[in-house]
Amino acid sequence: xxxxxxxxxxxxxxxxxxxxxxxxxxxxxxxxxxxxxxxxxxxxxxxxxxxxxxxxxxxxxxxxxxxxxxxxxxxxxxxxxxxxxxxxxxxxxxxxxxxxxxxxxxxxxxxxxxxxxxxxxxxxxxxxxxxxxxxxxxxxxxxxxxxxxxxxxxxxxxxxxxxxxxxxxxxxxxxxxxxxxxxxxxxxxxxxx
Amino acid sequence: xxxxxxxxxxxxxxxxxxxxxxxxxxxxxxxxxxxxxxxxxxxxxxxxxxxxxxxxxxxxxxxxxxxxxxxxxxxxxxxxxxxxxxxxxxxxxxxxxxxxxxxxxxxxxxxxxxxxxxxxxxxxxxxxxxxxxxxxxxxxxxxxxxxxxxxxxxxxxxxxxxxxxxxxxxxxxxxxxxxxxxxxxxxxxxxxxxxxxxxxxxxxxxxxxxxxxxxxxxxxxxxxxxxxxxxxxxxxxxxxxxxxxxxxxxxxxxxxxxxxxxxxxxxxxxxxxxxxxxxxxxxxxxxxxxxxxxxxxxxxxxxxxxxxxxxxxxxxxxxxxxxxxxxxxxxxxxxxxxxxxxxxxxxxxxxxxxxxxxxxxxxxxxxxxxxxxxxxxxxxxxxxxxxxxxxxxxxxxxxxxxxxxxxxxxxxxxxxxxxxxxxxxxxxxxxxxxxxxxxxxxxxxxxxxxxxxxxxxxxxxxxxxxxxxxxxxxxxxxxxxxxxxxxxx
Lengths: 193, 489
Ligand code: SF4
Known about the structure:
With 193 residues, chain A is α/β, with parallel strands linked by helices. Chain A has helices at 11-22, 36-48, 67-74, 91-97, 147-152; strands spanning 26-29, 55-59, 80-84, 100-103, 107-109, 114-118, 133-138, 143-144, 161-165, 170-171, 179-180, 187-192.
């Protein structure tokens, strides 16, 4: 896979992964020479639990993950129903019923373990928030050092809605007890490629 | 009222302080949870800064940015309005709380709204928005878990960041059981915090999907880009901003910052100082509607900018109060707040910032006595405040103003003068700390502290205001928008 490059041995990648893990996120790496499909299937399996399903996953993936390879990577997961986000209103119900949302991201931040998503018709925000689990695909080249660096990338390119995700949805509203998965996903994973 | 100097209107618990305080001190659940929560949050703030020098550098820049933005507020609000308008949104200006409620009610009526979902927002508490909407037959649901709990109980938030800190698990279970039977869904099986949270997720999920209007507050308004920035940990702001077809953001005018660079400096401060995280789980930035047949995002977006007494503080010694980012750090370290919690303050704004801000916004018409009652002069708040707001100095000034305007007696006045000097010196400060500790012990003894002499009531009425900018935002608004109207269509 020529698009997959060395993800490790890069201080930004390592810092991001470490921060992301501290927040309770799972981390997977698709390194050069390995099959990214294997890391992908591992992540999906871990997020869905119980030996890869059955379950449903709503996804969009960005230009890095072309359609053909996607079909190859997902084929072995035959108990999981994959639905592609198409930006139509019916996607609301699909997202609400999905067990897993899979998205790309515009950039990620090493210092905070954050990922940023921009709304466009073909890159919806709902898959990242409605399902109980979220898998975000992070191109290692999109990992920047600071939040300010990331926000700097938005200039001149401001979408009507954008979000920066830093860990799972959580609350401490009942007797100060920390609980994950309030309105957004309680399980989050990053696949760095 | 030229220059926008109009007293704000805030809800108030009219019972006297000793009664509110004693009620709080008798609530063991609240005291235990508030004590744990405030200590956890305070420790979090200290820890997160300890290995993150960039956070301190950003804080210093953020203070400068914020102070400058308050000075340049008129111009920046104008720029903000124009930018939102260019993105297809609408901006409205509300001078007072009732004006804001009227505006939101009109928007809801125009759009034939039946169901509203809300994020946590101090400003909508301040204007008592829910009551107005409910009067119009609209169903309004709070979606922040803590706010949802206290809405079920018909109560008020007890901490900015932990609104239901006065409710224990059994109480929450009872509230949810009643809620479940009313809405015909399965009640939570037990009172585990996780189970209760899962119930709220399930219950509110259906409401998110069928709501026609979302209402948010806002942590920052970015003038340059016309953006409203929202920071939450639960993810409810993401749902409120993406699912309903109409979105209304009600935000205080003081939340304005100049540009994207200023956002870069300040964006982490609420989480760093509020919960001890480098960033909260969700930072949502809204800059416009997404349009007609999109799967997500509002078709219509309205921003209601609320003054309600804020612009009257500009150019006064209290101007820095307008840079508050509502992080709650001053509450978490305050020995009084730690004992009595938020409800005892009688205002939506509690703790050190609340005792200063509530009388200031209302020109002393409510809770003017609080600077005298609810402060031990320990100075912990100013050390904790990320925006360097000089809360103890303001509390002293408010005490003095109170004395000068109404108590009149020479000896009392001298006493306060002397106290002010006393606390201004290092040794005086040391002594004041000892006294603060003594004061705290009083509070701990379930309300034996006597209220200060009756110096209260209505100070401030004839306070002189220094001149403000040559054309205020309000004047600009009047000049460039339709006569007498606040709508910007
Ligand atoms: S006054 Fe300072 S510490 Fe208190 S809430 Fe506002 S910004 Fe935070």
